[in-house]
UniProtKB/TrEMBL annotation:
Residues 1-19 form the signal peptide. The chain crosses the membrane at residues 43-66, 78-97, 117-142. It comes from Dictyocaulus viviparus (Bovine lungworm). It holds the Pfam family Claudin_3. PANTHER family: CLAUDIN, CLAUDIN-LIKE IN CAENORHABDITIS. This is Uncharacterized protein. The keyword Transmembrane applies. Keywords: Membrane, Signal, Transmembrane, Transmembrane helix.
Amino acid sequence: MVLCLILTVIATFNGKIFSWNCLRQSHRCTPWENEHIKSIKAMAIFMCLAIASEMICLLWNLITFCACCLKKYIIHPLMLFSFITTALLLVPVVLYTTSHQKSLDYYYQHRNTELGYSFWLLVGALVLAGVDTAVASLTVCLGSRGF
């Protein structure tokens, strides 16, 4: 989950998927960003929520690791938190691919950045969150059986 958090933070705050200046002050938006401002705001919200959820997962992992008793009961929320993180990361990926696909040519012509880099970081974080969810599910299953 640590690597997932790092990838999500980089993709969120490097300013290549969406511009934080545009989100704060609409007069700084490009015409392309003005056209897609609703999906950009939704992506920013879900990515920030995903970061918060990833931090909760890491904290819960630490609590579970340090717990000396009742581990098989305290570990159950980890699966839920991991699933929520995966869902929160899935939303921006779907939003990006569906709402931006038609106008990507314009965006590439008018902005000198590597847009794909941040998107693929986000996809990597999504894959890692999915793996974390599978590992959490397996851990809960084995933990409840006493392994």
